[in-house]
Amino acid sequence: MIVTMHIGRRTVTLVTAASLTLGVVGCATGPDQPDTVAEEFAAALDTGDAASAAALTTDPAAAQEAISDLFEGLGNDDPTVTVAGIGDGDTFDLDVSWNFGEGKDWSYRTTGSALEDTAEESDDDDGWRVRWDPTVLAPELSAGTSLRYTPTTGTPPTIFDSSGQPLMSEQIVTLVNLDSSADPAAVAPLLASAAPTITADFLAADLEKSPARR
User: Smallest Cα–Cα separation from 81: which of 139, 38, 113?
Assistant: First the structure.
């Protein structure tokens, strides 16, 4: 409120505390966006909370189904998800990594965007939502695709020749390089536990073929 007072020939304008308070309120802003909703979305995924992550999107039902399918397909609901940066046009990047055991890591970056949904605005979330798109979870993921983690380790195959006999199969190969001056009788016992088929006679015969003995 502005009050004008006339004192003699002077005019004094007083600005009351009420108007100052109103000005401060008018300049107040909500949380930074899309930073805040992106951080909340990443944190929910990071803890494996599909429901909470989906609730922050523009299509909670579709998002929860896709996130749950992702966790189930990969057999893992413990990814590491962080906001890598905020771009132009209310976009953001997420860094995502999965661990499937020692030396089995998968890391990638996705891009998402957020928008202000005034119909859902509240004091808690400021009405911002992650625009739902499956590619925010993993590159090239769509509503019609899914991800599966399938280990391919197993027993090595045996390769057969045209007559049905084994041609190639897994086997242990032992390679021994013996100095020409070595005594086969002394070396053979040292190899007995690892390669019992390598005898002193075998080593002696092999040494006779060495160019150094010729």
Answer: 38
Domain coordinates of the chain in residue numbers? 1-154, 169-213
pLDDT value, residue 141: 93
Helices 200-208 and 184-191 pack at an angle, to 10 degrees, of 130
Distance, in Å, from the CA atom of 44 to the CA atom of 63, rounded to the nearest integer, reads 13
CA distances from 12 to 17, 22, 60, 104 (A): 16, 21, 59, 77
pTM: 0.58
User: Model confidence over 110-164: pLDDT tens digits?
Assistant: 999 999 877 655 545 568 999 999 999 999 999 989 899 988 777 778 888 899 8
pLDDT of 5 > 70? The answer is: no
Cβ contact 92:85 at 8 Å: yes
User: Which residues, other chains included, contact 16 with Cβ-Cβ below 8 Å and sequence gap of 6+?
Assistant: 1, 2, 3
Answer yes or no: is pLDDT of 10 > 70.
Answer: no
Q: Per CATH, which fold does 1-154 belong to?
A: Nuclear Transport Factor 2; Chain: A, (3.10.450)
Would you report the helix, strand and coil content of the chain in percent, each value rounded to 5? Answer: 35, 25, 45
Tokens 């084994």 belong to 166
Listed in order, strand segments (DSSP E) in 28-104 are 80-86, 91-99
Q: Is 176 in a helix, a strand, or coil?
A: coil
